[in-house]
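Lab meeting prep.
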Amino acid sequence: MTKKFDLKRLSFGLLAVSALAASLSACVPLVVGGAAVGGVMVAADRRTSGAQLDDEGIELKAVNRIGDYFGDKVHVNVTSFNRQVLLTGEVPTAEQKERVLQIVNKVENVRSVVDETAVMASSSLSTRSSDTLVTGKVKATLVDAKDLQANSFKVVTERGTVYLMGRVTQREADRATQLVRTISGVSKVVRLFEIITEQELNTLQTTNKTAK
């Protein structure tokens, strides 16, 4: 494996370090899923511009509404991709878990919700720091894979479980899963992909090139 760093890999590394620093500086109970950074990534996104805006709105509204209802009593991460919402984190009781799900289901433009929150005490700072580092390693691995477009994947890590989201082909889904499973610190991989055909991918790539 090459040890040479390119700009994309360095960027992902810096993002991971920034996220880790933020998690160490304060204990934030509610987290919005990572958004695309910069015009280049937005332009290459396989979602429509409308879906991208909806996803940002869904994440912000869900976080705010959960925060208004629970305050700091729960630790819930909200990640939306193409209007499918992933909930991860921890809640103290089954009743609170159900209430979180109800709140998110009522957010405008939500197409479906995958509830992966656990009924347990909030994860420790060391666990969250480890998850941040794993996410950084996953993103760096996807960047190194020359047969994948790293910015087509959204990565979420919770207590060692890596959740992969994105609009990808079956080949891309299988390849990314294979790579992620080999990364140290990954205990499980959960795939929440929207599978598209190779023809659909070619059409998207042609459209993106034309738009540049």
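Slide two material, second protein:
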Amino acid sequence: MIRPALTAWRDVTEKLLALTQKTAEDTRDETIAGIEALLDDRDKLQPHIAAPFTLEEETFGKSLVVIETEVQKKLALFTDLIRTDITGAQAKKDTMKNYVNPYSNVARDGTFYDTKQ
């Protein structure tokens, strides 16, 4: 018989895997909140999963390890997507700032460099 904590872990992990598929920008805040809630649920379940395991639980655990690696990959892709959007937004902000005031980054030390010698 498999412990309820293991089956609950699998259910939460499958929900987490499904939630990482949603990468739409308009629902990103809700997705992040859902991911955080599911990760908190998994943290609460973790102390209830401890050795000794039965043979049935060991085979079940091996399938969980496979799912877990997939979840880690999806979460890494999701964070990379967020980082890319943040750097893109920062680049747009800098570009707009340079467009509004093109001489803001010019060194104003009072020197003049004559190119003709």
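Talking points for slide two:
The mean pLDDT is 87.
Helices lie at 4-19, 28-45, 55-100.
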